[in-house]
Amino acid sequence: MLEQCIKNVREQQPLIHNITNYVTVNDVANAILTVGASPIMADDAAEVEEITSICQGLNINIGTLNSRTIESMKLAGKKAASLKHALLLDPVGAGASHLRTNTAGELLDQIHFTAIRGNVSELKALAGQAQTTQGVDANAADAVTKENLAEMAAFAKEYAKKTQCVIVMTGAIDLVADQDRCYAIYNGRAEMARITGTGCQLSGIMTAFLAANPDKPLEACACAVIAMGLAGEIAYDHLTPYEGNSSYRNRIIDALSQMDESMIKEGARYEIC
Fold first, then answer.
1. Which of 4, 33, 37, 207 is the residue whose CA sits 20 to 30 A from 141?
2. Domains plus CATH for the chain?
3. For residues 144 and 248, which has the higher predicted lDDT (pLDDT)?
4. 198, 253 in Cβ contact below 8 A?
5. Could you tell me if 64 and 93 are in contact, meaning their C-beta atoms sit under 8 angstroms apart?
């Protein structure tokens, strides 16, 4: 049962190490807290191995990549992998610059991640497929639709097989795949894309779900995606006529804090393909 995954997070309260971008770092910390886990942010090479050793999961996000933190990401990633911790890579903007694409590739070559979460354009760039990019956002031409769902699910499963990790492709339709199964998830609101950081928040809480459900990485990722999508739906429904992006951002965090097993069970909209 997918909904068991959120119960495990709240019961186990894993500590999650985040090397993430400074645009959304506070929102990531708050999102992790809302699902019952604890965040810690540390990106100096002098301490990342020590910090990640006391955690149960590591979230690496390259959104504001710089030369100083690249080495920190590699050090922390290798230490977390050696300890068999949950490991997630969020390759923000892969395909937009050589630095981002090459760094994400090096991390994948040197570290075995539990999951990779990105938009379609980012994942295509990492997989070496022809793609177009729009900064850190997916290009509209790469969108997952009902018409190309089978094709994109096949791509996600094939890339999962190649990397031996769960592939999470977020967009209007979210895909969560291992080499055998793919969840196509329909929760969420288009308005979520207008708020900076919803993807980064998802990566943070997904790492917590992975840490609390080590034997069910596919289900953990799917449950995290559903929880975030449902939070977006609930938050939107509670907006007043004069509230906009700022209020929506806060209401998503509020909705996440109220999320429980029954809400996941009743509100999840997905199919397995």
1. 207
2. 4-272 (3.40.1190.20)
3. 248
4. no
5. no
**Distance of alpha carbon 80 from alpha carbon 3, whole angstroms:** 27
137 has pLDDT over 60: no
Give the integer Cα–Cα distance in Å for 212 and 38. 12
HSE toward the beta carbon, residue 204, CA cutoff 13 A? 32
134 beta partners? 137
Strands 57-61 and 86-90: parallel
Please enumerate in sequence order all residues whose Cβ is within 8 A of that of 235, keeping only pairs 6 or more positions apart, or say none.
248, 251, 252, 254, 255
> Tell me, what's the pLDDT at 129?
76
Q: What is the pLDDT of residues 236-253, one digit of tens each?
A: 999 999 999 999 999 999
* 16 close to 37: Cβ distance less than 8 angstroms: yes
For helices 120-127 and 149-163, what crossing angle results, to 10°?
50
Alpha carbon distances (Å) from 114 to 51, 118, 122, 191, 206: 19, 14, 17, 29, 11
Give the number of other Cβ atoms within 10 Å of residue 249's Cβ: 20
Q: Does residue 136 have a pLDDT over 90?
A: no
- State the Cα angle at 126 between 123 and 131, rounded to 5°: 65
Burial class (CB in 10 A: 0-12, 13-18, 19+), 254: middle
CA–chain centroid gap for 134, Å, is 19
Tokens representing 120 are 């379609």
